[in-house]
Amino acid sequence: MAKQTKKQKALAGTVDREKLYGVDEAIALAKKNATAKFDETIEVALNLGVDPRHADQMVRGVVTLPKGTGKTVRVGVFAKGAKADEAREAGADVVGAEDLLEIVQGGKIEFDRCIATPDMMGLVGRLGKVLGPKGLMPNPKLGTVTMNVAEAVKAAKGGQVEYRVEKAGIIHSGIGKASFPAEDLRANFDALVDAVVKAKPSGAKGKYLRKAAVSSSMGPGVKIDVAEVSAA
């Protein structure tokens, strides 16, 4: 484990590792501990009672954060003709078909979200090895394989985030920037938790939402009382 700096030790000292904080108190503490020279992201970690190795326990989806993410999201769209024009008008950063395939195959990925029209999926499927590991593969369940490209582009640009449970049963997601008002971060936190709870898979047994914590990019984690979250 990397040795803590004086600053990290000082910040860690502001958080009681044994205490379970209320959501508002935890968010306020995470904001206070965001002392880096850049606007840190406020991140949430949710520990779920699932084993994602089983298909019926996979938790994945998208949620629109009501107060936005504070991040500039670059959107790439695989489309042709009128649909390509629609994507550009909606604000997509990169639009193309075979030409975009060649750019991506060459290792140049200039987007954070990828959308495709259904007729393009034969083409996009050839990029599975490139886009898959980066979590960029368009997926109908996530609304990123669609004929309504304008709506999908606007959603990706306007605060929509994708969440996916990792091997250890944990979901990590940003809910905004440290510069956001605390009430905006709380609104985004509630939207994320609500979406994850509603996405509870049929195969999940026992307690579903086990642990929760919030932190800034460089700050220590603040444990949240999940009883308060579950009650809400």
Automatic annotation (TrEMBL):
Entry-linked SUPFAM superfamilies: Ribosomal protein L1 (SSF56808)
One Pfam family matching this protein: Ribosomal_L1
Assembly and binders: Part of the 50S ribosomal subunit.
One example of a Gene Ontology biological process annotation: translation
Function: Protein L1 is also a translational repressor protein, it controls the translation of the L11 operon by binding to its mRNA.
Molecular-function annotations in GO: rRNA binding; structural constituent of ribosome; tRNA binding
Family as reported in the entry's similarity comment: Belongs to the universal ribosomal protein uL1 family.
Protein keywords: Repressor, Ribonucleoprotein, Ribosomal protein, RNA-binding, rRNA-binding, Translation regulation, tRNA-binding
Organism domain of life: Bacteria
Gene3D superfamilies in alphabetical order: 3.30.190.20, 3.40.50.790
GO CC list: cytosolic large ribosomal subunit
Coiled-coil region: none
Alphabetized HAMAP family for the sequence: Ribosomal_uL1_B (MF_01318_B)
Protein name (record): Large ribosomal subunit protein uL1
